Amino acid sequence: MFFILLDPTVISANYRRIVRQGNFKFILGKSVPIPAMDTVKKITDEFIEVEYFLKNKNRVKEIFLQPVPHEHLLKKSAQKQPGIPLNILIIGVDSLSHSNTKRKLSKVYKYLKNELRSILFNGHSIVGDGTTEQLTAMLTGLGELEQHESRRHHKNPKPVDGWSWIYKQLKETGYLTGYSGDCPGLGPWQYRLMGFKNPPTDFYTRPFYAMAAQLIKNPNICLASRTISKVQFDYIREVFDMFKNKLKFFFSFNVHYSHNANSEAAKIEPDLLSLLKDLKQNNHLNNTLLIVMGDHGNRYGKARTLMQGKLEERLPLFSLTFPSWFLEKYPGISKNLKINTNRLTSWYDVYATFRHMISYPDVPTNLKHGQSLFTEVPSSRTCAEASVEKHWCPCLEWASIAPGHSHVNNSALAAVEFMNNANLEHQLSANNCRKLTLKDINYALLERPNDKLLSFKQTNDLLPAFSNKSRPHHKDFCRYQIQFTTSPNNGTYEATVRYHKEWFIVSKGISRVSKYGNQPECIARDLPHLRKFCMCKKKAVNAYASEDIFLVLVKCS
């Protein structure tokens, strides 16, 4: 990065390095002067804060980031060569379903489909609740609870460095790796987990965005004159331009626009479309696997109370774009990928595909979950076979049942008891969270047996998958999915409850489909996994306020 002061209103300027201090802190280095207008200053730090001193005696601060071509990165060599040596670029947008992409990012969707000839998956399912479950499955091949304990305020938690990250195997094959998330307060492995002790990737922008969150006070979405998404995507451009001859794995995860207001997802479209066009024009896609994806669909709001919304949450956007030569060179892979677009797939399969790229032509072994998308996924695949939890499975056939049915009422009461018991497990929440009671049952569904495979059918621009069920229905074994509202927090929840011989057994995956705002503020930082269940005793607040108490943005001019 080269700096030259051209603005005549600026008398002088200094810059300071932004330095990572563990996972949750950063510090600023010593102040270094930037020379006067006629001198160019070369800056080799990744993240800097610049302070300008103006003629009107005001001070202005800006922050900048850049990938730095350190010598150890340029000289990085592979212990072994990957079987399919393609760059991997992942662009993720929080809470973006397949269908909402068609509605809100229609230009991006059409560009992927018509110009890039992307492979768009219609039956791609989430595997659990929220962002962390999806990204952990995609990047480690295991579920969160299958790794060593990393949840804050659980017994002996450790940072997530020791998890089975795909980054580690990619580095062995010579890949440069990068991760950039634009909202550190909602980091997938920081919000309720212990985070990373050491940076997990070669390029890791968390210190920059942590500084941005402290520096910026206005509640909108720009850094100086650039949108957050443009900052994110400019960084991708710089990495790909700077390291053209190096294999790269880079994941850009974009939260700001869509996490808290799914209707705002369209605001990312101009910058995303521009990036896709630039990548193509500059020939970066000739040697890159491009993945454009959502982690899950919208989890809150009025639409989420409908069956359409329920399915959209479970069916995120997932697309793969390969170079045209690759699909011609590997016709078998091309055929299987196209078949799999109308099969049940999950994030575990994406991890398996990364592994297959490394080991090709050998199929990866020792996979606990998932299968490579280079191989044909069976049409009869069930959610259990895809490692998708029952509560999140989009492939079940359900029948409506009266909310007044005794089993439904008892299921709802069991779910509320489960939630209250969860709060009682910790002294902090037991002392500070109000007891919840059942207010209303909004609807209930009974799982029906399905002895035949139902083919994909388009409904209201959505493509849900259904698969056969081998288990016969039995009067002593029923599974219900219920949506209910509790008092005094006015919270709306969905729970899956299994009835078995007079027992009501609650699935661990209770989801809250209404926003909890600041209701759990007394325990949110210490017990983040209980946010959806807790309403603090001391302060009753609006249940429909923003939940993102750590989100800090800046307004575009």
UniProtKB/TrEMBL annotation:
<dbReference type="InterPro" id="IPR004245">
    <property type="entry name" value="DUF229"/>
</dbReference>
<dbReference type="Pfam" id="PF02995">
    <property type="entry name" value="DUF229"/>
</dbReference>
<dbReference type="GO" id="GO:0005615">
    <property type="term" value="C:extracellular space"/>
</dbReference>
<protein>
    <submittedName>
        <fullName>Uncharacterized protein</fullName>
    </submittedName>
</protein>
<dbReference type="InterPro" id="IPR017850">
    <property type="entry name" value="Alkaline_phosphatase_core_sf"/>
</dbReference>
